[in-house]
Amino acid sequence: MGNYEPLGLKPAMGWNSWNTFTWDIHEQLIREVADRFVSEGYKEAGYEYIVIDDCWSLKERDAGGNLVADPAKFPGGMKAVADYIHSKGLKFGMYSCVGTHTCAGYPGSFEHEFQDAARFAEWGIDFLKYDYCFKPRHISGELLYKRMSLALKNCGRDILFSACNWGEDGVYNWIRESGAHMYRSTGDIRDNWESVKSLALSQLGKQCYTGSFCHNDMDMLVVGMYGGSNSDFIGRIGGCSDTQYKTHFSLWSLMGSPLMIGCDIRKDNPITKQILQNPHLIAINQDLEARGAYRIKPEPQWFHTDDVFMLVKVLTDGDLAIGFFNLSDSQRELSLQFWDLGLPYAAGFSLSLFDCWAEQELGVFRERYAPVVAAHDCLVVRAKLVR
Ligand code: GAL
User: Fold this and answer.
1) Its Enzyme Commission number (predicted)?
2) 91: which strand partners?
3) Hey, what domains does the chain have and what are their CATH numbers?
4) Which atom in ligand 1 lies closest to the alpha carbon of residue 133?
């Protein structure tokens, strides 16, 4: 096996065209994103997949029933796009749908699964996002994901399978068995705080359903969009504050979601880059054992609402990643008793805390730690047991 890393071992990292560009995608944009991955440190930070979402094809298949890339958007064809992305040492992703049509009304892969998988392999893709619109009602989504999974696993190329059924139809109960490497557990994200908050809260109780080879995908990141979508639905105006984007990235990192950038990284500012490329947060997200995070309510518990909590992720080397999240609208003190981590005072250990955003040591603490966290903000620490 040498250096071979199996597909889906860790949450995928990359960029997806949908949040910012929706239908307005073309070859030049994709090339520029690939260039930017290399020149601005995204590749170095671990981002790998460049994914073209919906709206890339013609509205009709050809006479042979094949999908056809829209020549106005991709004049050189998909193989050329793939070659370019590969020449940068990156990977290429595309999009289709379990139904007869994609959500935007382009041909879906229903009853064409094996044919389309062969075509994707010919083009040289490495990732397929597979949506859930226009699904015939007489057939289960579970079976349709199994179909495409089987088709991809037998198309002669390693293609990461990204299921996208928005958490519907009890997906948690069957998606791992289907062979998908990641699965969307939520409806579409929007570029505003309410959306980020509600998606995160909706998945707090679902952390037992994520892990290696089948990661819970909480949707693409809106970090750095600042209302820059061309779609009113996703959020053409408004956006979030940098603090909110930082909290969003921290939640997705700790909760083990794939990290798929959704902003126009050709126009990123230094703060966006700092957030998306934070090496400590990325290391937590990419930790080899890929454990879900557990939630602790701050003490005194009766005092706190459900949008104030700690998330703890057990890391491979014995450290703990701990996020203190205040999603409420006013400042809070979040008291963590180390007892709740499985570390009683009598064990004789203290925790040495490293602040992953400020990139500095906070000191050594015994028994408890109680930071004050501003509204919508968070503190993420890496905690090491020390005597
Ligand atoms: C939605 C999906 C989005 C995007 C869109 C394309 O169903 O959740 O992420 O892919 O379709 O039409």
Assistant:
1) 3.2.1.-
2) 49
3) 13-285 (3.20.20.70), 294-386 (2.60.40.1180)
4) 7
How many whole angstroms from 212 Cα to the centroid of ligand 1? 24
- 182-184 and 215-217 beta bridge pairing: parallel
Tokens 């520029």 belong to which residue?
32
What is each CA distance from 29 to 19, 174, 232, in whole angstroms? 14, 36, 21
Nearest CA to ligand 1 atom 12: 103
For residue 174, what are the CA distances in angstroms to 145, 165, 170?
10, 12, 7
Look up 191 and say whether it is catalytic. Answer: no
Res 211 pLDDT > 70: yes
Over residues 135-156, mean pLDDT? 97
8 Å CB contact between 11 and 215: yes
Global pTM? 0.98
Residue of 131, 191, 217, 219 marked catalytic: 131
When pLDDT is averaged across residues 129-148 and rounded to a whole number, the result is 97
Atom of ligand 1 nearest to the CA of 131: 7
The tens digit of pLDDT for each residue in 110-128 reads: 999 999 999 999 999 999 9
Ligand 1 mean position, distance from CA 336 (Å): 38
CA distance 61 to 205: 42
Ligand 1, atom nearest to 95 Cα: 10
What pLDDT is attached to residue 284?
A: 99
Cα 53 to middle of ligand 1, angstroms: 8
The H or E element containing residue 149 is helix 141-153
Q: With 90 as the cut, is the pLDDT of residue 3 above it?
A: no
Average model confidence (pLDDT) across the chain: 97
Give the model's confidence band at 5: pLDDT under 50 very low, under 70 low, under 90 confident, else very high: confident
Q: Is 164 in the pocket of ligand 1 (CB under 6 A)?
A: yes
